[in-house]
Structure formats: structure tokens, C-alpha cells
Design brief:
CATH architecture of the largest domain: 3-Layer(aba) Sandwich
Radius of gyration: 23 Å
Helix content: 25-40%
Structural class: alpha/beta
Number of helices: 14
Largest sheet: 7 strands, parallel
CATH topology of the largest domain: Rossmann fold
Mean pLDDT: 94
Length: 393
């Protein structure tokens, strides 16, 4: 029973749409006895990102439904700007003690909504990557003004907080809440894959199943710079250090990557698995891998790999990274290489495999999963959000 002197506070979370990976943290948030969470978004994403089913809005909350109100996204100027039609109407119809917006400075309706909520005396927050680059310009200035309008900024990582503090943001407004794609039970895999199963999978995928395997999981896009994996592999081969490469995913860059592998003479050592959405199948693929490599921004790929007990290698330049790269602790659960340096990428792949060749797989997995259990999970993320609101409201 809730205390009469602590009535439930109403909190709205406003996004253009809700990606499916947000559902676990939302599920944890709505269990809070102190806050009642309402979702506000367009039910349609307009892209191929898997989203939370809008059917949950018509299901009773006792049966797993969500308190979810819909608006209409109207994209302007080649989808560079967004106006959420109906948002102001919803914010007028109900008093919210706090409203959490996806912190995108190009959402015009968010600007107007914040000014309106300030007049009503309601708290506003930004859920965002924050200012993640030290390179200043008009975009940097725009974001600084935008985030400054809110009562608090909910950040994915500590590097953004450091940059923002260095450039005049009040530390009291900046809160690191990390990121998550699931609960601890969802993310931490038990790795119940037998040696026989691993050997069978390797033989099915590779002509040389006894070699170490590096894996990439995610969409095969050019921005991920996946060609660097093949170029680094070629460097290693020229130095008589051979490995297998496993690409799990599909996308615009796949054909180019297949052609590059052929040109470099690596076709017999590369396997393009295609998209994989089955968790059990993905566990098998991680289980045969020594290292997950993401030469471009690493993002949630790191969470998936670490949760499966597989170390991660990505580049070291914060200005061009996603916040999740902060989960990589060099020498413990992965390594960082000098951005865009093929020789250093090759060196780090070799270094991890050689230095950890005799380390028990169980210990490597334990080191990888530790950061997920401690910080990058829905329970901890929801706990931090609730603590921030409890302090301010």
C-alpha cells in the first residue's frame, strides 16, 4: 500500500516511436509504486527498426498492456525536423509532474512543449547521448541551449557528462543512466553450448574450423567500417596469423564485403551468416567466437557480445563512438584500437587472441558479463531514473 503522504506522481515519456529494445526498461519502470508512467509517441516507426507493438496500448495494464497515448509524427525538410502533431493537446489534457523527452534538438514540438511545461511548473528531462563531441560549431551550440532548457539530462555515458561539465553545464543537472536492451536475466546468457555443438557449428561454417573466430553482429552498413575487419585480417594473414571471420547480419554493405573478401583471398576464411533474430542461435554463434570486432561505432553490439561472455574490440575515439564503448575495459573484457588504423586493429586482434589463448573460457566470460550485471541492464537503468525523479519531484 502506498503512503498517503506520498501520492503517485505522473510521468510521461515522449519519443517519436518506441524501439522494441526499450520494452524491458519500460516494463521495470511501470512497476514503480511511486510513479505512474505514460508513453507518448507515434505508433509507427517509419523505418525497419523493430518497435514495441501498439497493440499493447489497448491491452489492460494488468495483462501486460501499457498506458500509451499516440501522436502523429510529421517530418519536415527531408525528415531533418520533426513535429509531433497532437503532443501539446495531450500535455494540456493531463497534468504530469515530469515529462521525459528524447533529447533531439531537431524536434520542433519538443522545444514548444518544454516552454509550455515550464509555464505550468512541470519538470522536464532529456533522455539523450548529450554533447558527445568536443568539436564546437553551430550544432554544438544548438544542443547546449536545448539541453539547458530542461531540469535534468539523462545520459548514456560518463564521457558525455565530462564534456558537458567542461563546457559549462551544471553538474547537478547531468545524470548517467547507461543503456540496456533487457533485464539481467535477458542479457546474461548461461552459455550452455556443448563442445560437441561448438565443433559442429565451426565445421558447418568454416573450411578451417580449428582457427580462432572473430565475429561481428549487426546490420552490415558502410558506416560500421566493416571493410576494416577484412583489411586487418589480410594484414594478419600476411604475417602468417590466420583467423576465421563471421559476419552475422545483413545490409547494404554485404555485397561489397563479399567482393572484398574474394579480392583479398579470404573467402575460404569468411562466412556471411545473414540476419539472425533467434537468441538461441545467436548464442551458438557467439559461443564459437573468440572476439567481437566493431571497427566503427560499437553501440548495442557491445551489450550483446558482453552478455554472451565474448570480449569486444572497437576504436578509441570518443568523438566518433557510441556511449556503450565505455563498457569496454581494456585488457579485461576487450580492447580499443586507434581509430581507422588497420595495422593497430590487426595488432589488437592478434594481441587479444594470443594473450588469452590459455585463459579459461569461463573466466573470460565472467569478466565480460560483470559490467552488464552491474550497470547495463534494465533494472539498474530504471532504478537510476526513479532515483532522479524521486529527488527532484
Amino acid at each position: 500500500m502506498r503512503h498517503l503522504d506520498k501520492p503517485t506522481k505522473n510521468v510521461a515519456i515522449v519519443y517519436p516511436y518506441f524501439a522494441h529494445y526499450r520494452l524491458p526498461v519500460i516494463r521495470v519502470l511501470i512497476k514503480s509504486p511511486q510513479f505512474h508512467y505514460t508513453l507518448i509517441s507515434d505508433p509507427i516507426s517509419g523505418n525497419d527498426i523493430k518497435k514495441i507493438s501498439p497493440d499493447l496500448a489497448i491491452r489492460d495494464t494488468k495483462d501486460g498492456g501499457l498506458d500509451w497515448k499516440f501522436v502523429k509524427n510529421r517530418w519536415i525538410y527531408k525528415e531533418a525536423l520533426l513535429w509531433q502533431s497532437g503532443l501539446l493537446k495531450l500535455l494540456r489534457e493531463k497534468k504530469y509532474d515530469a515529462v521525459i523527452f528524447l533529447g533531439n534538438a531537431y524536434y520542433l514540438s519538443t522545444w514548444l512543449s518544454i516552454f509550455y511545461l515550464k509555464l505550468k511548473g512541470e519538470k522536464t528531462y532529456m533522455w539523450t547521448h548529450g554533447v558527445i563531441s568536443k568539436k564546437k560549431g553551430w550544432k554544438w551550440t544548438l544542443r547546449k541551449v536545448f539541453y539547458g532548457l530542461s531540469d535534468g539530462v539523462l545520459l548514456y555515458g560518463h564521457k558525455a557528462k565530462e564534456v558537458m561539465i567542461e563546457n559549462g553545464f551544471p553538474e547537478r543537472k547531468l545524470h548517467v543512466i547507461y543503456n540496456s536492451t533487457g533485464t539481467v536475466d535477458d542479457l546474461i546468457k548461461k552459455n550452455e553450448v556443448s563442445i560437441q555443438s561448438k565443433n559442429k557449428t565451426k565445421k558447418q561454417l568454416f573450411k578451417h574450423p580449428d582457427l580462432p573466430v572473430i565475429i561481428f553482429v549487426g546490420r552490415l552498413t558502410f558506416v560500421k567500417k566493416l571493410d576494416q575487419i577484412l583489411q586487418a585480417t589480410k594484414v594478419l594473414f600476411d604475417d602468417n596469423f590466420k583467423i576465421n571471420v563471421l559476419f552475422v547480419g545483413d545490409g547494404e554493405a554485404r555485397k561489397d564485403l563479399e567482393n572484398l573478401a574474394k579480392t583479398l583471398g579470404l573467402s575460404d576464411y569468411c562466412h556471411f551468416y545473414g540476419a539472425c533474430f533467434e537468441e538461441r542461435e545467436l548464442e551458438k554463434l557467439f559461443a564459437i567466437s573468440n572476439l567481437c570486432v566493431s571497427p566503427g561505432e560499437v553501440g548495442l553490439t557491445a551489450m550483446s557480445a558482453l552478455g554472451n561472455g565474448i570480449p569486444v574490440l572497437s576504436h578509441d575515439d570518443f568523438n566518433y563512438q557510441m556511449p556503450e564503448y565505455e563498457a569496454i575495459e581494456a585488457g579485461v573484457n576487450g580492447l580499443l584500437f586507434k581509430r581507422n588504423s588497420i595495422p593497430d586493429l590487426a595488432l589488437k586482434i592478434n594481441q587479444w587472441i594470443v594473450e588469452n589463448r590459455d585463459m579459461p573460457e569461463e573466466l573470460i566470460a565472467q569478466n565480460c558479463k560483470k559490467i552488464i550485471k552491474e550497470k547495463y541492464n534494465a533494472e539498474y537503468q530504471a532504478e537510476l531514473i526513479n532515483k532522479i525523479l524521486s529527488k527532484d519531484l
